[in-house]
Amino acid sequence: MARKSAKNRSAKGTGTAGAGPKPLGPTALVETLVGGWRPLSRLDVGGFAILRSRGITRRANSIVPVDPPTEPQALENSLDRVLGLAGASDDPVLVRLYPDSGHAAVDQALAERGFSVEAPCDVLELPLGAKTPAPDPRATISIGPLPDDWFAASWRLSPRSGEGARETMRDILAGTPAVHVGIPAEGTADGEGRAEPTAVGRAALVDHGRTRSAVLNQIATDPEHRREGLATAVVRTLAAASQVQEAERALLEVESDNPAALALYRKLGFRRLGGYHYRVRS
Fold first, then answer.
1. Higher model confidence: residue 8 or residue 254?
2. Where is the N-acetyltransferase domain positioned along the sequence (predicted)?
3. pLDDT per position as a tens digit, 34-66
4. If 185 and its partner were Cys, which of 158, 198, 220, 224 is the partner (CB 3.0–4.6 Å)?
5. Per-residue pLDDT reduced to its tens digit, 108-153
6. Is the Cβ–Cβ distance between 51 and 64 less than 8 Å?
7. In the chain, what are the domain boundaries?
8. How many whole angstroms separate alpha carbon 270 and alpha carbon 6?
C-alpha cells in the first residue's frame, strides 16, 4: 500500500467507547502471537507446533503447545515424539509455555524431565476503539508488505547476531502484513536532507476467525534519542493505524525483567493479559 504521512490520514473508529473486544481463547491467543512473529517453517505434531527460522530469535525457533493432549500418558507420548523430532536438529530445544492458556500440565511434565525456566515474558493487551490516541504527526506509516527503507532503519536500530541474521529477520518480518512506523527526532536528517527514523515499530495484523489483532514488536529507538517520547509516539501511532485497519486489540510481549518498558506500556493503557516462559533442556 502507498505510504502516507500520519497527519494526512483520517482515523475513523471501529470500536465503541467503553466496550472491549471479545476475549481471545487460549488457542487463539497462542496462534495470534505466533502469527505476529511468523516462523519460516512450522511442523504440527501431536498438539504441538515446532517452529524453525535458521536459529534466529527464540520466538521463531521454539516448540509451542497449540492443543496438547490432556490425558497424562498421551501427553508424555506426544512430548517424546515432539522432543525427539526437535532434538534431531542442531537447534536448542526450547518450549514456549503459556501457563494461563492451558499449558500448566505441559510445564509440569517438562519440569519433571529436567527442563529449566528461561526468559519469562508478560503479554499485554490494549483494546482499540473510539478512545485510541491519534497518530503522531511526524510519523511515516506504511501498511502491507515489508518496506525496504523501514527494514533498513529497523536493522540499524536493532540488529541481531548470528549467521545470516539480517536475511532471516527480513524473512520473518515479511511473513505477515503489518503496519510499519518510523518517527524522526528533531534535527535529524540523512545526507540528502531527509529526516531518518530514529524510532521504529511494527504491528503485525493477524486474523484469527473473525477477529483481527495487532501484534506490536520490533519497537526500537536510537540510544542517543531516548527519553524524548519517541517510543510512546511509535506505540500510539501503531495503535491508531492498526485500529483504522480494523484491529480490535493491540498485543505486546515484554520481558518480565524490563520494568521500564512495562511501566511505559501501563501508562499507555496496556494491561497484563497473561504471560509465558521458555523451558530449556538443561
1. 254
2. 141-282
3. 999 999 999 999 999 999 999 999 999 999 999
4. 198
5. 999 999 999 999 999 999 999 878 889 999 999 999 999 999 999 9
6. yes
7. 4-24+125-274, 26-122
8. 22
User: What are 115's three cell numbers?
Assistant: 527442563
Longest CA pairwise span in the chain (Å): 65
pTM of the model: 0.89
- Architecture of the domain made up of 4-24+125-274: 3-Layer(aba) Sandwich (3.40)
Q: At a CB cut-off of 8 Å and minimum separation 6, what does 176 contact?
A: 35, 36, 38, 204, 205, 206
H helix or E strand, kind and range, residue 253: strand 249-255
* Long-range residue pairs from 133-136, CB within 8 A, at least 24 positions apart, any chain: 133/236, 133/239, 133/240, 134/11, 134/236, 134/240, 135/6, 135/7, 135/9, 135/11, 135/236, 135/237, 135/240, 135/241, 136/6, 136/183, 136/233, 136/234, 136/236, 136/237
**SS3 category, 240:** helix
- Torsion (CA) 97, 26, 268, 56 in degrees, nearest 10: 40
Q: Which amino acid is at 87?
A: G
For residue 180, give the nearest of 208, 157, 205, 212 by alpha carbon.
Answer: 205
Give the C-alpha separation, 62 to 115, whole Å.
14
Residues 6+ apart with CB under 8 A from 255: 119, 120, 121, 122, 261
Q: Read off the pLDDT band of 21 (50, 70, 90).
A: confident
Helix extents (H) in the chain: 26-36, 72-87, 104-112, 148-157, 165-173, 230-244, 259-267
